[in-house]
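Q: Could you fold this chain for me?
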Amino acid sequence: MRNFFLALSGLLLAHAANSQKKVQLITLDPGHFHAALVQKSMYPQVDPTVHVYAKKGLDLQLHLDKIKAYNSSATAPTGWIEKVYEGDDYLNRMLQEKKGNVVVLAGNNQLKTDYILKSVQAGFNVFSDKPMVINEKGFDQLKQAFAVAKKKDLLLYDIMTERYEITTILQKVFSMEPVLFGVLQKGTAAEPAVTKESVHHFYKYVSGSVLTRPAWFLDVEQEGEGIVDVTTHLVDLVQWECFPGQTLDYTKDVKVNTAKSWATTISKDQFTELTKLRDQPAYLDKYTDSKNDIGVLCNGEINYTLKGVHAKVSVIWNYKAPEGTGDTHYSIMRGTKANLVIRQGAEQQYKPTLYLEPLQNTAAYEKQAAAVVERIARQYKGISLKKNDKGWEVVIPDVLKEGHESHFARVTEKYLEYLSKRNMPAWEVPNMLAKYYTTTQAQKLASKK
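A: Sure. Below is the predicted structure, expressed as structure tokens.
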């Protein structure tokens, strides 16, 4: 009998060890720096050996250079071991060899949706950069991919880093305090209840050095138009903040009212500075005028309703930020008692800052605000209110502030938690579908104009 229990114990331990099997990453066709940022940190449950499948070329080399830089960093160096397969048949090799269990995707968006579908069909979990889809046809493929993932018990998830930005987190937290915020207004088309605007730049620094963009980044057929790219984050935040924990049905809850797109001009010299290429590839000719300027359809605006609430999201791409500045974000949620506003302009020294602006400020409201913030500060240590002429600035200690690159570790940790504990909230998948329905329907509407 003793031997029986020893054997049983051994089987249980083996089962437990198997259930805690290390995650083995595969990086497929990396073409965007977000693929490398997933590996800027190490994770205890992730095997340090990562298999990379791609064509030989600049995209692959830039990716490997970033991983090498993280491994040799003076502060918190990583220890990744990259096993690389280079060849035109990289996708089939990955699907056949099955060297890992999680496929990381960040690159050419024209190819990405097909990669997602084929990966889940082959039994891989997928951790994908946004956008998962860039047009209506891709949305139909994504629906199929989620259905396959559900049937095979696989985790398909996109990288929503902006949920981990502290001013956005606190905007959501404050909006869930009826005594301060009231309830979210319905808004109008002229004055939406929630507005999110994002300004980005082609020329930027990543991990301390100037980012080299692949030439295809300027081809909206490969990268996706701006209205389906960065707006993915903004639409996600509208859903996440306005309807926390609620399952959305894109067939009923989303109505795109108006959408528009417009171009940013990139000169020949700027093209060379961005890509390190002297000559542009032929696929950019269709966007190029007689002066060799490239018109990139990277700007977009969507006006829509979500469960009857009016929302507006917009993204603008400039070539280069003025010295001392960078990408910026503006957001407002309009409540029946107060507005919650994130500003990131010159007055804020280009750092995102949250404001609480009551519609009617009274002594009683001020007392309530102090009490609520004292309670919130128990979880978010050190936050406080600083009075101004419109209400208050929410003062956030530096220890709570993380940069965009650090957010990749946070969202990766969340993905790994969902993968090991199988505890992803039921609303995540339908809300991803609602998000990509919104962006692709907006793209379809804007393209008609």
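A (continued): Confidence is low (pLDDT under 50) at residues 1-19.
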